[in-house]
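Re-running the complex after MR caught last week's input typo. The corrected sequence lines follow. Everything else is unchanged.
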Amino acid sequence: MSSSPPAVSVRGLVKRYGRTTAVDGLDLDLAAGQVLALLGPNGAGKTTTVEVCEGFVTADAGEVRVLGVDPAGAPDTLRARIGVMPQGGGAYPGVRAAEMLRLVAACSAHPLDVGWLSAVLGLDSCARTPYKRLSGGQQQRLALACAVVGRPELVFLDEPTAGMDPQGRRLVWELIGALRRDGVAVLLTTHLMEEAEELADQVVIVDHGRVVAQGSPVALTATTEQQELRFRARAGMDVAGLAAALPAGYGADEPIAGRYVVRGRIDPGVLSTITGWCAEQGALADDVQVARRSLEDVFLELTGRELRS
Amino acid sequence: MTTPPATPPATAGPTFPPGTFSPRPGGGSPGRMLAAQAGTEMRLALRNGEQVLLTLLIPVVLLVGLSTVDVVPLPEPRIAAVAPGVLALAVMSTAFTGQAIALGFDRRYGVVRRLAATALPRWLLVAGRLAAVLGVVALQMVLLGGLAAGLGWRPEPAGLGWALLLVVLGCAAFGALGILLGGTLRAEIVLAVANLVWFLLLVGGGIAIPLDRLPGPLAAAGAVLPSGALAEGLRETLTTGAVPDPGPVLVLLGWTVVAAAVAVRAVRLR
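Corrected-run output:
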């Protein structure tokens, strides 16, 4: 083949479990050598989507191509070319970390040096510890090592930093950056906005099995008109009155008692309107902060704030 | 003397030099994958205390106990009836009970899915497990056969080859049943069922007590169970050196085919 096909191409993917629709007409594109973060609350359909791409789950409808291959039709062909880090890892309960990594390495034609990989991922100190006695972070790092040891073209990482300490997370981010630099495509799922913002070329926010937003982190958090100002003041002020005092198109809100948010382009005139309005209410605006929207704000706006099971 | 603390990793230079992960995909050779998986699983089985208790210690105790103490009425020499039963027990312990329990917990810990996500094709995944079972059974045959010989067992040399064939058929039948059980139910339930079945077949399935010493209905049932077929087939051929009856061979083949056919549909990776 002269030009490489996209790493992942998903069109209209549908997957139902009984009466629950886990994935509901999802489209996804990951170009070769890029990093895509699939972001969404629990139960949004992230893991199901990844498992369809890996050939573990068959789709009810839609077209899926991974490295140009149909994962359901030729899983063995595909799996020789991809690396997989399943959610929660996976190893024999009694196996030692180094033993497990050697076994996975033996399944590929040109594996990385197992000793070196164990050392850089901090697995040397637990090389002889049975898997079931490893800490959550150690199990995650072993799972990550297993995903990359075979020098794949495309890596699926399902919540790669769940349960890791900040040092471990930094190391994983560095590794994902190195994968991208060396031309490996990465599809990762995460709850962590910071992770998606830091690593991804493309962020896809999913909820209820559908894509609710996608784009680069910069595009998704674009600041053009979407700045915000946060301040604290006496609880229970009339936010509708504040919005009315501001130019048209501005929004005001009190998401938590005593904490106010004004959305819109924040300039000195708007700032003085806000502080003046507070003074009229006999309140002092405190802890005033102007910020561009974080990816987390975008995420919560799109997926709501209620807890998911 | 205290050793100095390990040197902290050098901070100079990137952790992952450029080109470290440049793709070079491809599956390992089938032979290498099979050897790696079977070798790992065999080591795990021999390192696991409960498995060793089941596959070696209990058979050794029964071999010595049943052949020297008159708890079960047996024709003399007692060892001629006991040794083939213990060899059948060894096969059942490893291929069925040990295998089912290991698979149940392996699924719980996600290893079957983990390995399926590598270049290991599904048939190799199964072949690797069965090769590990055959490896452990070979070790059991040597150790238990040697101990039985030490206790005065003199099997008919002409029957040894047939016995080997029966042992392989027994591994297939019990192995397929073990994969079916361990591959479909929750780990704790697998643990309970696999041990219960092991005990029932040991006592009433023709292993510890030859079928002709059991009450009529139990003997008839035992003959169509894999335990009874394997134990009686081994007793017959190792005592007389004759070709095994078609009965036990067909029973073992039948269990293999049925269990494997159901397993192909029912087994879940996790």
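None of the earlier attempt is carried over here. Residues 70 and 139 of chain A are 30 Å apart (CA to CA). The first strand of chain A starts at residue 8 and ends at 17.
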